[in-house]
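Each field is set out as follows.
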Amino acid sequence: MRTKDALRVAFISDVHSNLEALEAVLDEVGKLKVFCAGDIVGYGASPNEVVRLLQDVGATCVVGNHDVASLDGDVGEFNPRAAMAAIWTSQHLSDEGKSFLRSLPREARADVGGKSLYMAHGSPDDTMWEYVRPSTHADLFDYYLKKVQADLIALGHTHLAFQWRSDGGGLVFNPGSVGQPRNGDTRASFAILSVEGGEVEVEARQVEYDIEKAARKVLASGLPPSLATQLLSGR
């Protein structure tokens, strides 16, 4: 039984302008505080709508590489499809949407139930571009925790959910992608973090959403059609 001092918050990342997926996730998390680890826009057809929705729920967000590309137009590090999507997003983002993205930090810190949280899109060493996975970075996680002096580190960018615990109780995790999963599961991914009695648990969650509607919007928008196909395959 959860005690009265228990705290629960939601973590999301890589929404990528997928309004239908974001709406489904927010319906699941209800009134929980939401943290977003970047890449709010890019790839999908509803950039302004997802920005407004995250503003409406008061989400704490950091900026991701696709968010930055939609503002400065620098797509030199992107593959052709991602570059086309970033340029399309830049052309369709409202002034309000651009202003919101410009206001976002590359790193964020917060107190979550007495635990110190650090959040970035990529990694503490490269907040924009580094792809962090346990298979490649597990030997760096203790270093990350010490570097940022945090109990919890939330990252995005890879679109793949994971969680890793240090012997000292530190936790590094990724909630997966809301709007463009790449693990073969087409559902929107997110995570619920609970702190109770000083103990931290992260529950990876997935929720069904109207993928066909999101895909139709991509096809009708002029974005690369393969971005719609990717939603339907989860790859």
